[in-house]
Structure formats: structure tokens, C-alpha cells
Design a protein that fits this description.
The chain is an alpha/beta fold and about 350 residues long. Helix content is about 35%, strand content about 20%. The strands form 3 sheets. A 9-stranded mixed β-sheet has the order 3-7-4-8-13-12-9-10-11, sandwiched between helices. Strands 1-2 form a two-stranded antiparallel sheet. A two-stranded antiparallel sheet has the order 5-6. It starts with a strand and ends in a 7-residue tail after the last helix.
Amino acid sequence: MPQAIVHHCAPGGASRPAGSLQQNHATVIDLNSLAPTLVPADPALYFSRNDPADPRMGDIIVRDHSRIPDTVRAVLIGVPQDIGVARNRGRVGAAAAPAAVRAMLTRLTPYDMLAARPIPAGFLADAGDIRCDGELEDIHERLREVVRAVRAAGCVPIVVGGGHDITYAAAAGVYDADGASGIINLDAHLDVRPPVPARNSGTSFRMLIDEGMVVPGNVVEFGIQSFANAEVHVRWLNAHGGRIITLDEVRARGFGTSLATAYLIAGSGERHVYATLDMDAVRSADAPGVSATMPDGFSAQEFLGAARLLGRRPATVAMDIAEVNPTYDRDNITAKLAAYAVQQFIAGLCEREGGSI
């Protein structure tokens, strides 16, 4: 049975300053109380060449839950379910994504060519997967509890779904630890459907706004596409103060400029920022294995650049990747892209300087 995890990170609270991930005060995450919520990751997913001269992420991710060293700054959390996708009448298969992404992630080397240094051993811990028996609402409560605990320890949760309903639960956990935040959502869809008759993969942002867990003026929907959203949903988000930056606008203004603008809006007022990456924001040529493919969208290069920037920016306190669907993938390229996005986000975290989250 996993024991308590000790993190030497900043304590939780809305007043936590943004910045790098340096040590501050010790906080304990009691995995004895969280153990019924988590299932350890399958060891078979962890790759190693057993070569000290050629380490892989599978060699340096912390998996021993008896004690996490004070080097840990980010925590990987899988959510292997697609109940919300099924409720939203999408094509199921995302339940297999956390395993597929882990398998690709652990094969990557930690060496970052851009920074000319490796991601440090012990920087990332793997909490395993959220237990996904029961109803979607039960799963969300478990995820919310784990994310809250990670954030209360001052570390950055990286959540891998699963359907995009994971954002509701994970952002709620951030709210519990940090207060209301901003959100930047890379997506083709707004996901502001009303939760009627029940929540699903298309209701996260409406629920978060309605329940006051995010600040509507700090909600940015980035890369939204024509002919993929209902007019009533566009009008609802506009009426509540959210900002929509369409894919057409991104193309006209340039990706880098548009993303920088989006981040300024999401983080304005010294807000923490929750970053969520829906894989259907990427064009199907680069990401065929998703719950709802799009013929147009971001390129793989743009998607990875966004992940790097979101990790680098000091206001970012959590990130998720949703809607990878291995059932429809081709040669694992979507799972690989998601794994590279996680790795780029982690590399961005490593670049932060000064202060503490």
C-alpha cells in the first residue's frame, strides 16, 4: 500500500506567488488516504535501455510512493475513462489513452536540445491512474481530490485523459487549493454545453463558469473552429465574458502572437492559469487518433510549441491533455504527439526562474 508522499514545495493557497519550482516549505501528501483513489501505473509501460549512458524517461520518473524526493516538481495523473465521451455521443476509446501516452513518454530521452541540458532525474513523479469504476461523477470526485492534494503541496499536476470532462474535475481541484483561476483551452470546440441530462465531455467550461471555479473574463478558448460549434454556445460564452480566439484569427495574426495574447487574458489580474490541450485542436493529418477528428487545426509543431510556452509561463499551475483515442490512432502518432507535448510542458517547467509556484 502506498505510504505518505513528502514534497518540499510551496504550500497551497490562492496567495502563492508564481515563478520557478524551487523548494519552499515541506508539505505531506498522505497517500494512505488517497490510496483507494489511485491505481499504480502498469510497470510494463515503463521503458528502459538499461544503459546509464542512454537514460530514458522510464528510468528517471519517480514511481516509488513510499517517499517522493524533494526534487519532484510535477506529478503525472492518468484518467483512463471515456464515459463522458459516450454521454456526448462521441466515439469511445479514450480510456486507453493514459497507458498509450505513458508507453510513448517513457521511451523519450530526458535530454532537451533547446536548453542543452536534461530534464533532471526525479523532477516528475507518476501518481498512477484515478480509479475509474462507478459513475463519471464518482471518478471526477476522486480526480478533484488528487489534484487538490498535488496543488496543496505546491507541485504541478499533469493530467492525461480520458475525455475532456477531466478538465472540470482537475480545475475544480485547482480551485480547492488555489482559488478561482483563468483557463486557456486549445480546442476546436467550446465545450460549454449545459450538463443536461448529465455532465459529459462537452460541459466542462460551462460547469466551471456556472459554479464560480474559474473567472469568466479569464477563460480563453483558443483555436475554435467554424462549423464545429452551435451558435447558442458561442452566444452563451460571449454573454458570460469568455474570450473566443478562432483558428481563423490565429492564422491571420500568427500563432505565437495569438497564443501570447491568449495567455495574457487568461492570466490577467495575477490569476493562476489552468492549461488544457484537447487533441482535436490538432489537424487530423498530425493527430488521427482522437475522439472527434478535424481536417484543419494546429500543426504538431504549433501544438508542441504551445505546450512548451504554457509550461514555461510562471502562472501556469496545472495542465491536462484530453481526447487521445488509441483505437483510431495510426502507428501511435497521436499518442506520441501527446507524450511529446507532456515532455515539452515539463521542459518548460524546468526553464522557470525565480520565486516559487
